[in-house]
Amino acid sequence: MNSTKNQTNSYQFWDHASTSNITEYNSSVTFQSEFSPVIDQVIGGVLIIILFITMVSLGCKMEVAKIREHIAKPKGVAIAIVAQYGIMPLSAFTFAKIFQLEPMAAMTVLICGCCPGGNLSNIFTLGLHGDMNLSILLTTFSNVMGFGMMPLLLYMYYQGIYGLESAIPYGGITLALVLTLVPCAIGIAINHWAPRFSPIIIKVGLSALVVTTIVIFILCGIAVRDTIRPVLSPPLVATAALMPIIGFLFGYMMSFLFNLNQQCRRTIAMETGCQNVQLGTTVLKVVFPYEIIGPLFLFPFIYVTFQVGEALLLTILFRCYQRFKASSNKKTVYVTVNGNTEEATSV
């Protein structure tokens, strides 16, 4: 026990002007995983399978010619990378300062803010009728850049105190790349060689994703309902809620300033605000034992919940706007058929 306390007190806050030391988040709470290792592995395996199927279905919406066009003119990719690795870490750092988060909480938030883009952005790009070709490219480049940017950003913000840059989950980043590129390549091939199957695959993939996501969110919510309460403090909840909004807003604004089209703006907004926080969870797991980090280990779950909720809300609002716009553009005309005047509606 003494060794644990000594290890805990050896961590110092990222602000060198602060004299606060990191202590155990709550000594009265004994945090441990609510899932057995077997169940945890089963859930992880199911998620990988569903993600693979989903990315195949998204690949069915891609075209090789358009991918080449984005690679030849990488303005959208450059904007998204700057937004992803510039805005999100800075937002996390700023909110940690504004809300005066405790050192361990601030560290957890910043680790999540330094993560690359995730596959959530691809899914919601489809819902927002964005550019799927650009979306997959952005996720790929973001994760490739993550090999260097995550350790660099963590070193910059923490000045190498905690050795966090050495805990980057390179295996997790590689897996994210594989689960993006391989199934998308399969989807592209299907769309090219057997396009009649694309609509069926898209419907099956997205339906399986929706059902699985709902079930897993409910199971996780039930499993951590007692442990997660300390993480639901107003400052942490506000941080988790505001960070995706900042990402969506600034991603869209930067795209607007550089005169990208509407599809690209929505795509870059999603890529900026939806991060692969599973990598942040891995960093936390590698660097800090449960005795030190406590329930803060569940902050990425809160963060990704707000990402999904806010992106879903934006998607619903966008779809409603599209329907309203389509109905308002309809015009009523009258035609004469066989001497009789009939009403006809055209757009």
UniProtKB/TrEMBL annotation:
The membrane topology of this protein is: Multi-pass membrane protein
Q: Which GO terms describe its cellular component?
A: plasma membrane
**GO MF term set:** bile acid:sodium symporter activity
- State the similarity comment: Belongs to the bile acid:sodium symporter (BASS) (TC 2.A.28) family.
Transmembrane ranges, per UniProt, are 42-64, 76-99, 134-158, 170-194, 200-224, 236-258, 297-321
Q: Return the InterPro entries for the record.
A: BilAc:Na_symport/Acr3, Bilac:Na_transpt, Na+/solute_symporter_sf
**Localized where?**
Cell membrane
Asked if Ribosomal protein is a keyword of the record, the answer is no
- Which reaction does this chain catalyze? glycocholate(out) + 2 Na(+)(out) = glycocholate(in) + 2 Na(+)(in); taurocholate(out) + 2 Na(+)(out) = taurocholate(in) + 2 Na(+)(in); tauroursodeoxycholate(out) + 2 Na(+)(out) = tauroursodeoxycholate(in) + 2 Na(+)(in); estrone 3-sulfate(out) + 2 Na(+)(out) = estrone 3-sulfate(in) + 2 Na(+)(in)
Q: Which UniProt keywords apply?
A: Cell membrane, Glycoprotein, Ion transport, Lipid transport, Membrane, Sodium, Sodium transport, Symport, Transmembrane, Transmembrane helix, Transport
Q: To which species is this protein native? A: Paramormyrops kingsleyae
Its function, per the record, reads: As a major transporter of conjugated bile salts from plasma into the hepatocyte, it plays a key role in the enterohepatic circulation of bile salts necessary for the solubilization and absorption of dietary fat and fat-soluble vitamins. It is strictly dependent on the extracellular presence of sodium. It exhibits broad substrate specificity and transports various bile acids, such as taurocholate, cholate, as well as non-bile acid organic compounds, such as estrone sulfate.
**Protein name per its UniProtKB record:** Hepatic sodium/bile acid cotransporter
